[in-house]
Amino acid sequence: MKSKEQIRTKLDESESYVIKVLDQVGDRWEQQIYPDGLQWNTRQVLIHITEADRGHNFQAMNIAEGKDVIPADFDVERYNARTTEKFATKTVVEARAELAANRKALLEWLDGLDEAKLDREGRHASGATMTVRNIIRMQALHAQAHARDIARVLGITLG
Asked: Alpha-carbon distance 37 to 78, whole Å?
């Protein structure tokens, strides 16, 4: 299996899991998921996943073109707090539509990408230097991890 195919498979698996969890939230969008830190509720976690996906797309696409877009002093905690404030009124419907659009844009970009560019490196929002391939992998794992937290707190089981 080619590298881009493996990435697409991981993205598809992650997206499928996230969608299955979100489809079972029901009317619990305002239920708190994280009791500490930013103390996000389910809707805020969804918005965070959406915004993080958008940011990961931006990072991967620019690093693939040789651009370094994350400054050395980038503070991911400050960024997360700011996006929570900035998108406080975003609805679940809006966030889910944006999440789907972000993924569609990433997959279309990936389809046309020269595979060699997956090995280009740049600074990820975490501060670590990563290849484009690893940024996209991190993107999939990040969304899936938050969906697992939602499922755990809300008692959602997928069988």
From this structure: 11
Q: Write out the DSSP string of the chain.
A: --HHHHHHHHHHHHHHHHHHHHHT-TT-TTSBS-SSTT--BHHHHHHHHHHHHHHHHHHHHHHHTT---S-TT--HHHHHHHHHHHTTT--HHHHHHHHHHHHHHHHHHHHHS-GGGGG-EEE-TTS-EEEHHHHHHHHHHHHHHHHHHHHHHHT----
Residue 1: pLDDT over 70:
no
Q: How far apart are CA 105 and CA 103, in angstroms?
A: 5
CB 122 within 8 A of CB 26: no
pLDDT of residue 2: 67
- Per the prediction, the chain carries an average pLDDT of 95
Cα separation, 47 vs 20, in Å, equals 16
Rounded to 10°, the helix 3-23/132-154 angle is 20
**Integer Cα distance of 38 and 81 in angstroms:** 7
Report yes or no: 63 and 120 within 8 Å, Cβ to Cβ: yes
